UniProtKB/TrEMBL annotation:
It comes from Pseudonocardia hispaniensis. SUPFAM superfamilies: Ferritin-like. It comes from the Bacteria. One of its GO terms (molecular function) is oxidoreductase activity. Keywords: Oxidoreductase. This is Benzoyl-CoA 2,3-epoxidase subunit BoxB.
Length: 470
């Protein structure tokens, strides 16, 4: 499925055959570019070594080259359409998927698309100023690659709103550019996307934990009976993998440098030696993991049950599940707080779909912990990073009204207040990390608080000039 780059809006959906839709999207395009100039990357550049999608098939879907970011060809790309795709779950399991929006599900589908669409520009806004403190040109390029792809993911959701939801959809598409991350009057919809990303440790944690939530949310929407949404999310998942790679390998490099400094100076307190102490990395991890868990919503949810039953939103890798894919008689075990203590209870599986997705995410997050702890083991460091308890620092869901320690103990307000700076980043932690954030723009050079990457991009050497600054 080649992408037509001769069009004003590159696409593989034959946009030219629907002149009304094409004109509507072309009228939205200048507003998007204004948003990019005002809320996108703040660091002036001439061009960046970026990958651009050329088709959505298994092979050859990315082309690399230096591109001026404002001239990046954002567009609308859907994965290839299956000839006989069937609904895989819910009451209509086995029936043909929908090419149009059924009237009874219009409001719910629009809401799902708007929430997903709102996260895409939000992360660009959160990361707007990070280029000013990039630890290398390699990292700067990766930041910009993430940014342009989040911009295209916004386009993906806006296309669906314009193409299938009429005037309401067009109004929602405009609103996606009017809300801004952290804005007091018009914030982004989900809490994690109103948090600041003020430094590169936060960026690596965000791309590891929060973009990983994005992977799982897109994975559930990929199962949708609404086929255009499914195909859109399937292609977005290809690009999302790079975002998580940036986070995984970024934290790799921070942990590796921390271990080097601990061994070199025979101390845990490496802050005076220009590194990030392991306990600070742990506190940043605790924060970003807990905030990302909130993105899954309440562990028990009638909305999630209704979406599943209707065929709007499935489970992660639905086709691999060995059950009836309707769950009307199934149950699952869930941790919750009852009578002042943590306990496990059996709950209906339909009501626990958010919990199911969250559990898949938690298992996946452990893979990063294994990597980073292996680095510490190999360096002879007898300490490990850990994931905090799922109830720690939660503002959404079953644990939101309780204080639970990283170890999983229920405590009172006084204990929580006394210990919070040992569990979450303190003002002193943030000040120290910020003090290390000095830009390194010379090709092949790297900031001293993390190690160099093991490989360049697309076979290029590490000293390649990935970004030309203005």
């Amino acid at each position: 499925m080649p992408i037509d780059y001769s069009e004003k809006i590159p696409n593989n959906v034959d946009l030219a055959s629907d002149r009304r839709l094409q004109r509507a999207l072309e009228s939205w395009q200048p507003n998007f570019l204004t948003w990019w100039r005002t809320m996108g990357p703040a660091l002036p550049t001439r061009d960046v070594y970026l990958r651009t999608a050329v088709d959505v098939g298994r092979e050859g879907w990315a082309r690399f080259g230096h591109v001026a970011m404002e001239e990046y060809r954002w567009g609308v790309f859907l994965a290839e359409r299956g000839d006989d795709r069937r609904i895989g779950f819910g009451q209509q399991r086995g029936e043909p998927v929908w090419q149009q929006v059924p009237g009874e599900y219009r409001a719910d589908l629009q809401r799902l698309i708007v929430i997903q669409g709102d996260t895409e520009p939000a992360s660009v806004e959160q990361q707007r100023r990070l280029g000013e403190t990039a630890p290398s040109l390699y990292d700067l390029r990766n930041l910009f690659q993430v940014n342009v792809e989040e911009g295209r993911h916004l386009w993906a959701m806006v296309y669906l709103l314009h193409a299938y939801f009429g005037r309401n959809g067009r109004e929602e598409a405009e609103a996606l550019l009017q809300r801004n991350s952290g804005d007091l009057d018009s914030p982004r919809i989900l809490g994690a996307f109103n948090e600041q990303t003020p430094d590169w440790l936060s960026f690596f944690m965000f791309t590891y934990f929060t973009d990983r939530d994005g992977k799982y949310q897109l994975g559930t929407l990929k199962e949708s009976a609404f086929d255009p949404l499914s195909r859109t999310c399937e292609f977005m998942l290809k690009e999302e993998a790079h975002h998580m790679f940036v986070g995984t390998t970024g934290i790799d490099r921070v942990v590796a440098r921390t271990a080097e400094l601990m061994r070199e100076h025979d101390t845990d307190d490496i802050a005076p030696h220009g590194g990030i102490p392991l306990e600070v990395i742990q506190r940043y991890l605790n924060f970003h993991y807990s905030v990302s868990l909130d993105l899954f919503g309440s562990e028990q949810s009638t909305n999630a049950a209704n979406y599943y039953t209707a065929g709007l939103k499935g489970r992660w890798q639905e086709e691999r599940r060995r059950d009836d894919h309707q769950l009307t008689d199934d149950s699952t075990k869930m941790t919750l707080v009852k009578n002042g203590r943590l306990t496990t209870e059996e709950v209906p599986a339909l009501l626990a779909l958010n919990h199911d997705l969250q559990s898949e995410y938690v298992t996946d997050c452990h893979s990063g912990l294994k990597r980073w702890n292996r680095l510490l083991d190999n360096a002879g460091i007898d300490r490990h990073l850990t994931l905090p308890h799922i109830g720690f620092n939660r503002r959404v869901g079953l644990f939101a009204d309780h204080h639970i320690t990283p170890a999983g103990n229920l405590v009172g307000q006084d204990t929580w207040n006394a210990k919070i700076n040992s569990w979450l980043p303190s003002a002193a932690d943030k000040t120290h990390v910020q003090s290390l954030m000095h830009p390194v723009y010379q090709p092949g050079k790297i900031a001293s608080w993390l190690t160099p990457p093991s490989n360049g991009i697309n076979g290029k050497p590490l000293d390649y000039e990935y970004v030309h600054l203005a």
